[in-house]
Amino acid sequence: MPPLATRGESVETSLHRDLKRIYAGPGARIEARVASYRIDAIVDGVLIEVQHGSLAAIRDKIRRLLTDHDVLVVKPIVVRKTLVYRKRKGGAVARSRLSPKRGRLLDLFDELVHFTNVFPHPRLTLEMPLVEVEEIRYPGHGRRRRYRANDFQVEDQKLVQVLETHRLQTAGDLAALVACDLPAPFSTAHLATGLDAPRWLAQRIAYCLRHTGAAKQVGKQGNAWLYQWQAGRSKIAA
Predict the structure, then answer these.
(1) CA triplet 164, 167, 173: central angle to 5 degrees?
(2) What does the pLDDT look like over 174-195, one tens digit per residue?
(3) H or E segment and range at residue 181
(4) How far is the C-alpha of 183 from the C-alpha of 190, rounded, in Å?
(5) What is the distance between the alpha carbons of residues 210 and 202, in angstroms, rounded to a whole number?
(6) pTM exceeds 0.70 for this model
(7) Which of 20, 106, 189, 203 has the least CB density, counted as fewest CB within 10 Å?
């Protein structure tokens, strides 16, 4: 297994390399330079950035590139993860288990709160592959520390499969992610109940909807802000 390498905004894992290979396809320019930035791939003039880390880390970069280029940002969401534990770094596998943590498409809003001054944009496309991965771990953060179940370091993440893919280009596409019936107007309490989501995530969803123009504030009910749709809830590409 190749070692992880620092790449400026992120550490390149096998997951990143595999997704880059999928989206680039044959004949693409890989790790190309555009202005002062390194770009994962360029296909038919479109700049492709695979970002497993925070969208905030590439926010300024993408905003500047959109001035002169069409950009596709690929934001994988891990919905299924198998944890593979090695006896030591690079050593034999000791055990594996399925992680109880499951991601879902709504997790995008947790990242998008840091990206609403970039998305939506007529030259920008966000694509979210829902992926299954293996995460390779090995024990210990230091020789003197005794082994504990949660005392580990991540060696790599590997792509197992892409389960489905969703694409966002407009505020209406973003509104379509809120796949539940809501009253008019609605509050974050309605969002939390309808989406079976924690209130903090519902508040971030409302923030993203408002700042992207998908919804607007129309008043308050008690201490709760009320919202109504402003953009049509289109069916997002999948």
Answers:
(1) 125
(2) 999 999 999 999 999 999 999 9
(3) none
(4) 8
(5) 12
(6) yes
(7) 189
CB 71 within 8 A of CB 47: yes
| Centroid of chain to Cα 182 | 25
The set of residues, in sequence order, having a beta carbon less than 8 Å from that of 138 and lying 6+ positions away, is 85, 86, 87, 88, 89, 90, 91, 152, 153, 155
Tens of pLDDT, residue by residue over 23-41, are 998 878 899 999 899 999 9
Dihedral, CA atoms, 96, 101, 103, 108, nearest 10 degrees? -120
- The size of the chain, in residues, is 238
Displacement of CA 230 from its chain's centroid (Å): 25
Residue 1 has a pLDDT of: 38
Q: Which residue has the tokens 């771990």?
A: 137
Burial of 150 (0-12, 13-18, 19+ CB in 10 A): exposed
Nearest-angstrom CA–CA distance, 65 and 150: 40
Average pLDDT score, the chain: 90
Distance CA 59, CA 57 (A): 6
Apex 206 CA angle, 202 and 208, nearest 5: 115
The model's confidence at residue 150, banded by pLDDT at 50, 70 and 90, is low
The residues pairing with 237 across neighbouring beta strands, listed in sequence order, are: 167
Taking CA atoms, 126 is separated from 16, 66, 220, in Å, by 16, 13, 32
Question: Does residue 233 register a pLDDT over 80?
Answer: no
Which tokens sit at 70?
Answer: 């069409």
